[in-house]
């Protein structure tokens, strides 16, 4: 296959970037998208150019490192898959592929296609945990969890924090990510104890970081590689409302 | 010459850890906040250790190369995490778990450490559950268990096929909570280039900021490495692409002994190599062999489509060779058998380096629905990657480098031979002997992090309370930084013609061919020469574009690959030395008449701990003799 | 056009923000609080639309008397007067909060994508700001024509019903709906309103945290029903007047 590429190149966060066109021959349909970029980089290095920087690690769709905006969609064409799981057989010979980084104020570009997603960890830092010290945990079976509830919690816990929800959202909102984390801990009995403080702290941090608001367009759900549902956003809204109404604190 | 002191507490096996904890020195809370600890790596071991140490009140600085600690490769573990809870009332116990691990490791691990790993496993499950890890449940709300890795009890806790992800995210949440409290400070996007040793004690690290290229000095009273394994030595492996040995290797060069470097597990079922650009091998869970039948054509070079090859022309070689266990033989045996068939020319696929894993009979017998219920997500993953529907034609699988049992040699306290330098999780050599059993790596990592290191490090730091903050202006830091910078400059100055990756691929091929699933004297000797030649070529002809003062992924790779040459050679030296077959280490010279592994307990019941002696010097072997006081050494037989 | 508005707003906001940190202070309510407010105000406005529709449909009665009486009642009754304040507040809050949310949303993505594809989402949801602008323009015309002129300018001829004098709103409406351009504009506006409500009604429930596997499909059906009933209900009137014998 012969592939034309239009890739966003930006040396660092301080300078402006632009799209550069590349042509790559001998792309085999069995290659993964990232392997195609590897091949492009090999070619660029050999020609004395600078390789395209992109983030990746596990290459099996679980670490959440990779995340490219390909032909107008986060993680490219294909349902419920990450960029590293995308294969070139999804494209045709002669196709032009536009590759962009995630775009959001809260995700500034570091270089080329790499963005800074540390905002997600900032949000988790605000409350994405259960305060239990090592050694202080009760016997595991003393906390009974309904099987369905446990599976529901698992489903949201599969979020890999890749940022596709933010990238997909026309408002660059992080609500799907935040609500997934809030939901997991709000559903499980272990997490209920701190649920009210958690939702308020995490939402406040999310707002502070400049993520957009949710206008219920649900592009996040459509593009989430792990199939996280927007019902979690509703749960977050509910949790937040209850927390605000019930809380004795006036702030 | 340094001698190895494993510091195993006296007394009966089951009381050693209790005794140790009763006698260990403690640091009072007010002093803890004056003590700094550096922790490298944020997988399950690193994250759990960071959260525990932070919680105790130490000042913890955590480093990882990823943009976020929660992306470390523990995230990819699939099957589960073992614990001796005996929730099934099926006869499990701490002793039973200990015994299975010792035996599974082919009697090449230290009894006391393995027993402790089994002992703390139960508290680990409690801890992870309390942190909100959604383990599978029974209808009554209690935790579910499954049987895994060919043991006779059901002791594996799991979250579908994503147990590693769930455990890591749980441990990460504990870590991030400490970051919130200010006890832990995160330094993401950093590679460790040097370990700094001051007066014989580990006192800091030199890192490279992967975004700015800045070389940074960080000091502490103790350094803990939780940097994982070096399976990427084969280039293609089931590991994350950026996994590397650099931190452990720099520790080795500073005096930490390396234990059993050649023990590396090759997982039998990964998706095979599909093209020359392939960068990664994806694991297909071991559980598939419960229903899938492994076969190759009886005829050499039979290129017909798998479905066109009639039953009588198929060779179900595992069933043929191991009638008792059939397709369920342990990982090492299954891997070697696949290699044997492919090497003999019976492999399938374009490369001939694959065997069929066929579900035709299982589907015919149990129905497609039943198979889908059991393996649906794996089948989907397989189809996503290969474009082949495994419901209608066999999967193709091939072994892939997976887990390193070898690692930095540590004593009972998980301290390396450098005072104040610890290694936990996969980065140490200790608990899995020569072969790891399924679902025991998560167990060991979390156990080390939550319950072992927080105790043992205190025993050392209690003696450091009078040591003031370590200054990074010390000459040792100066020197380490200089050495790191010099190495980078040297790499950048080569300005050769070949990419870093091309070298990594070639090194991987040498290692795979000569120090992979099956090893022999001639091959290993040849490998030594080949590695040296390639290493020389590397330093003459590698091409690293860009500069040092920017985000430069090629430079990151180049630094890592340079260290891979070192560990590659050490692996080969260790494999040459160990003239027996044990666990994952198969020396062709040491096999039975039927081609099975033959252990040599009389001569090799020891841990090889290698000491670095300089760039062009041979490392020195130290032997830690393994004493088995509680188990009887037996031969593993699967016929 | 929206793109240039967006750019303009962004540049203004950048200046404002750098000087006053406006987002940190006066507009500091949580993103979720703003969502509740928009949702609640929206739902309230929908209930008003139903009342309004009911009164408008009186126009289709053989004589405009009932309509005129009702319109007068709505215009003068003291309780209605109070509600009028509530109503205008509702409109005002809905608009202001939506605008704040919109501006913040624009700010959340200062650099846009070169190519943006369609995800599998509700198309109407992506155009809430566009539809709302059209509705707003309609509202301005509507208020000038029927509210300000009646209330403050007294430009409406009176009609005597049962011995009492009422402004002949019915005549005004009927006269207006004989003009093709008014009819077309009116109909288009309500089609747009239908789109707005199609997303807005069910979206409000999501914002308020009311999403449930069992009930949400019904809410979505209801949303479609509400949008169609209101749009069609209002549209029938000009059509009937234009083509009918009024």
Describe the model.
- With 251 residues, chain A is an alpha+beta fold.
- Chain A has helices at residues 33-46, 118-127, 147-157, 164-168, 175-187, 189-192, 195-208, 219-223, 231-246, and strands at 3-9, 18-24, 69-70, 73-74, 96-100, 109-111, 114-115.
- Chain A has two domains: 3-111, Beta-grasp domain (Ubiquitin-like (UB roll)); 118-246, Alpha-helical ferredoxin (Fumarate Reductase Iron-sulfur Protein, Chain B, domain 2), CATH 1.10.1060.
- Chain A has a five-stranded mixed sheet with strand order 2-1-5-3-4.
- In chain A, helix 2 (118-127) packs antiparallel against helix 7, helix 3 runs antiparallel to helix 5 (175-187) and helix 5 (175-187) packs antiparallel against helix 7.
- Chain B has 639 residues and is of the alpha/beta class.
- Among the domains of chain B are: 268-401, Succinate dehydrogenase/fumarate reductase flavoprotein, catalytic domain (Flavocytochrome C3, Chain A, domain 1, Alpha-Beta Complex), CATH 3.90.700.10; 475-611, Fumarate reductase/succinate dehydrogenase flavoprotein-like, C-terminal domain (Methane Monooxygenase Hydroxylase, Chain G, domain 1, Up-down Bundle).
- In chain B, 36% of the residues lie in helices and 15% in strands.
- Chain B has helices spanning 16-23, 29-32, 44-56, 94-104, 111-130, 163-181, 246-253, 317-321, 331-343, 360-366, 368-386, 441-461, 475-494, 500-514, 521-541, 553-577, 601-604, and strands at residues 36-40, 59-63, 81-82, 156-157, 184-187, 190-198, 201-209, 215-219, 222-225, 258-259, 264-270, 293-297, 314-315, 355-358, 395-404, 407-408, 421-423, 498-499, 542-543, 606-611, 620-625.
- In chain B, strands 5-2-1-9-17 form a five-stranded parallel sheet, with helices on both faces.
- By secondary structure, chain C is mainly alpha-helical.
- Chain C is built from eight helices and two strands, in the order αααααββααα.
- In chain C, strands 1-2 form a two-stranded antiparallel sheet.
- In chain C, strand 1 (158-161) and strand 2 (164-167) form a beta hairpin.
- The longest helix of chain C is centred in the middle third of the chain and has 31 residues, at 78-108.
- Chain C is globular.
- The model of chain C is unreliable at 20-26 (pLDDT under 50).
């Amino acid at each position: 296959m012969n592939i034309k590429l239009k890739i966003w190149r930006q040396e660092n966060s301080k300078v402006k970037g632009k799209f550069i066109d590349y042509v790559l021959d001998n792309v085999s349909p069995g290659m993964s998208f990232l392997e195609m970029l590897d091949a492009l980089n090999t070619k660029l290095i050999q020609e004395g150019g600078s390789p395209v920087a992109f983030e990746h690690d596990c290459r099996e769709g679980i670490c959440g490192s990779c995340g490219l905006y390909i032909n107008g969609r986060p993680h490219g064409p294909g349902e419920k898959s990450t960029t590293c799981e995308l294969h070139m057989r999804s494209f045709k010979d002669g196709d032009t592929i536009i590759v962009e980084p995630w775009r959001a104020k809260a995700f500034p570009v570091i270089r080329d296609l790499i963005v800074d997603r540390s905002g997600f960890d900032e949000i988790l830092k605000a409350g994405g945990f259960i305060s239990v010290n090592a050694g202080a945990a009760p016997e595991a079976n003393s906390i009974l969890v309904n099987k369905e509830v446990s599976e529901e919690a698992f489903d949201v816990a599969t979020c890999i924090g890749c940022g596709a929800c933010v990238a997909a959202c026309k408002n660059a909102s992080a609500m799907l990510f935040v609500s997934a984390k809030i939901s997991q801990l709000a559903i499980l009995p272990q997490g209920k104890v701190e649920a009210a403080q958690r939702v308020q702290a995490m939402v406040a941090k999310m707002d502070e970081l400049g993520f957009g608001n949710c206008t219920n367009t649900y592009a996040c759900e459509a593009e989430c590689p792990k199939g996280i549902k927007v019902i979690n956003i509703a749960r977050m809204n509910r949790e937040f409302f209850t927390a605000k109404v019930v809380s004795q604190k006036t702030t | 010459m340094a001698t190895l002191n494993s510091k195993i507490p006296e007394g009966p096996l089951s009381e050693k850890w209790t005794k140790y904890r009763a006698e260990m020195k403690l640091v009072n809370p007010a002093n803890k906040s004056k003590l700094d600890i550096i922790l490298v790596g944020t997988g399950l071991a690193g994250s759990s250790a960071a959260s525990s140490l932070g919680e105790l009140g130490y000042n913890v600085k955590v480093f990882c190369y990823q943009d976020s600690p929660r992306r470390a490769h523990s995230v990819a573990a699939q099957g589960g995490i073992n614990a001796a809870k005996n929730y099934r009332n099926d006869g499990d116990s701490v002793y039973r778990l200990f015994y299975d691990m010792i035996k599974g490791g082919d009697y090449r691990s230290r009894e006391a450490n393995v027993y402790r790993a089994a002992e703390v496993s139960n508290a680990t499950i409690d801890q992870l559950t309390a942190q909100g890890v959604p383990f599978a449940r029974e209808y009554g709300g209690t935790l579910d268990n499954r049987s895994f890795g060919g043991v006779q009890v059901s002791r594996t806790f799991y979250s579908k096929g994503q147990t590693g992800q769930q455990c890591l995210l749980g441990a990460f949440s504990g870590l991030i909570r400490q970051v919130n409290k200010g006890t832990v400070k995160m330094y993401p996007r950093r590679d460790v280039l040097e370990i700094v040793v001051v007066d014989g004690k580990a006192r800091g690290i030199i890192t490279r900021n992967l975004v700015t290229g800045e070389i940074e000095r960080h000091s502490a009273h103790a350094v803990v490495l939780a940097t994982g394994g070096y399976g990427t030595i084969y280039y293609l492996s089931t590991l994350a692409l950026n996994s590397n040995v650099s931190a452990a290797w720099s520790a080795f060069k500073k005096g930490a002994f390396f234990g059993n470097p050649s023990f590396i597990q090759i997982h039998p079922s990964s998706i095979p190599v599909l093209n020359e650009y392939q960068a990664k091998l994806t694991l297909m869970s071991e559980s598939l062999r419960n229903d899938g039948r492994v076969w190759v054509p009886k005829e050499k070079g039979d290129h017909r489509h798998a479905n066109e090859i009639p039953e009588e022309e198929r060779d179900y070689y595992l069933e043929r060779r191991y009638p008792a266990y059939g397709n369920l033989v342990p990982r090492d045996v299954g891997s070697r058998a696949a290699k044997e068939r492919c090497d003999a020319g019976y492999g399938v696929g374009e490369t001939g380096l694959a065997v069929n894993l066929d579900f035709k009979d299982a589907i015919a017998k149990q129905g497609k629905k039943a198979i889908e219920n059991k393996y649906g997500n794996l089948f989907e993953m397989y189809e996503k990657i290969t474009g082949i529907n495994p419901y209608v034609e066999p999967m193709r699988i091939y072994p892939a480098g997976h887990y390193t049992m070898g690692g930095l040699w540590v004593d009972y306290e998980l301290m390396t031979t450098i005072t104040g330098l610890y290694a936990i999780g996969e980065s140490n050599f200790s608990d899995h002997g020569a072969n790891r059993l399924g679902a025991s790596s998560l167990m060991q990592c979390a156990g080390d992090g939550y319950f072992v290191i927080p105790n043992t490090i205190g025993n050392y730091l209690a003696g450091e309370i009078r040591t003031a903050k370590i200054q990074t202006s010390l000459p040792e830091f100066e020197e380490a930084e200089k050495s790191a910078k010099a190495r980078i400059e040297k790499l950048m100055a080569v300005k050769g013609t070949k990419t870093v990756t091309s070298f990594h691929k070639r090194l991987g091929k040498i290692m795979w061919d000569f120090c992979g699933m099956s090893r022999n004297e001639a091959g290993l000797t040849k490998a030594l020469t080949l590695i040296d030649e390639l290493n020389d070529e590397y330093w003459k002809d590698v091409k690293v574009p860009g500069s040092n003062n920017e985000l430069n992924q090629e430079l990151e790779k180049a630094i890592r690959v340079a260290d891979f040459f070192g560990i590659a050679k050490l692996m080969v030296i260790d494999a040459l030395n160990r003239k027996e077959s044990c666990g994952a280490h198969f020396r062709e010279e040491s096999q039975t008449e039927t081609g099975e592994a033959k252990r040599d307990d009389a001569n090799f019941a020891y841990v090889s701990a290698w000491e670095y002696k300089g760039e062009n010097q041979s490392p020195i072997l130290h032997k830690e003799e393994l004493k088995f006081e509680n188990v009887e050494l037996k031969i593993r037989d699967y016929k | 056009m929206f793109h240039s508005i967006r750019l303009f707003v962004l540049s203004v906001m950048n200046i404002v923000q750098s000087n006053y940190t406006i987002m940190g202070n006066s507009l500091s309510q949580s993103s979720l609080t703003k969502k509740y407010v928009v949702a609640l105000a929206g739902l309230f406005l929908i209930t008003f639309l139903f009342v309004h529709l009911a009164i408008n449909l009186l126009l289709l009665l053989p004589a405009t008397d009932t309509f005129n009486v009702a319109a007068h009642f709505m215009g003068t009754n003291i309780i209605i007067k109070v509600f009028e304040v509530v109503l205008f507040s509702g409109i005002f809050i809905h608009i202001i909060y939506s605008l704040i949310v919109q501006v913040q949303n624009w700010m959340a993505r200062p650099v846009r994508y070169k190519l943006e594809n369609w995800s599998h989402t509700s198309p109407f949801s992506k155009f809430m700001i566009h539809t709302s602008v059209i509705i707003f323009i309609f509202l301005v015309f509507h208020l000038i024509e029927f509210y300000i002129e009646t209330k403050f300018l007294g430009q409406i001829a009176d009609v005597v019903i049962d011995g009492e004098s009422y402004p002949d709103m019915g005549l005004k409406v009927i006269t207006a709906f004989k003009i093709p351009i008014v009819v077309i504009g009116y109909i288009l506006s309500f089609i747009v309103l239908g789109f707005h409500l199609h997303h807005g009604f069910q979206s409000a429930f999501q914002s308020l945290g009311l999403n449930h596997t069992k009930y949400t499909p019904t809410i979505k059906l209801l949303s479609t029903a509400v949008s169609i009933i209101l749009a069609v209900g209002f549209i029938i009137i000009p059509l009937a007047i234009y083509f009918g014998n009024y």
